[in-house]
Sequence to fold (157 residues):
Amino acid sequence: MITIGQLKTRLRRIPHLESDISSQEERLERLNQKLVDIGSPELTDMPRNPSPDYDHTTELIYRRDELENEIKGEREFIRKERKWVEDVLWHVQSAVEKKVIRLKYLDKESWKDIQFILYGDEKDFIENDEAYARKMYRVHGMALEHMWVEILKNNLW
Fold:
């Protein structure tokens, strides 16, 4: 049987994996730039071996292809995880609980931003900042509990 802690861990993985994909895409850009740079001839009067970068170029192409496949696999995994979250949330009745989960784990919003999104229009929001923060955390906790119940009830893990 799963625990709420395991549920939180699975939800937290989504934004972390998305950040990792961003890092991997930056690596891919650097690899592609290296390949472009290798293909740009340097014009000098000095004679040189016509293909000294062959092994290096081949290695870069291999690494690029491998990285592209890795990114594609991670994107597909994240897509499935996001769909799973939506499938579980479909069973949760509270709209505000769904909103908190989506904002935190799918949209990667900070707690402060979520608090403002939920309660920023309240007249006493600034004076009662801490009270609204506690309220938001309670909603989050209830959302996790309701998700957990639905996962167990509907065999969604």
